[in-house]
Amino acid sequence: LRSSWAAVAQTARTASPFVASELVLQVYNRVDLVMLSLIVGQVAAGIYASGFKFVEVGIIPLAFIGVAAYPRLSHLFGADPREFTALALDLMRVILFLGGLLAWALCFLVPTMIVPLFGARFVEAAPIVEIMAGLALVFAAEIALVRVMLAAHLQVARFRILALGTAFNVVLNLFLIPLF
Hints:
This protein is mainly α and 180 residues long.
């Protein structure tokens, strides 16, 4: 395999928004848990992590739907903008509907089943899961929007939004963790 430095540099430039987004995403995904652990303690962080795991696991099927729609979205973006828009809206509707079902389940079903399924050690996670139900809708919207943005070649815009969201997340955590 042979390549020129120009080809390697072009590949690095093309991949850099994706790499930067993944790095920022890793910070975004863990900053709340780290800050909670540092500000309040490991017990609170453990309760939070236990409750949040239900959201993370519940959102996985929605992510698969987004991944499944991505090749068609990518093809339609250049080939048929009208069909691209229609598919993007359909994807958003389906994922938001399923995210709403997940939020409902997290709010009304999961809290009643946590203790019988996992034991009394998880009793404090039940109200956390109820609170986090709203996050399921936010994550659902994010799943659909990220796939649409990537198909529309908006990876740099995605990085900027993600960086801004991460900074906002840090500020909110600094304010809200001590408050609550």
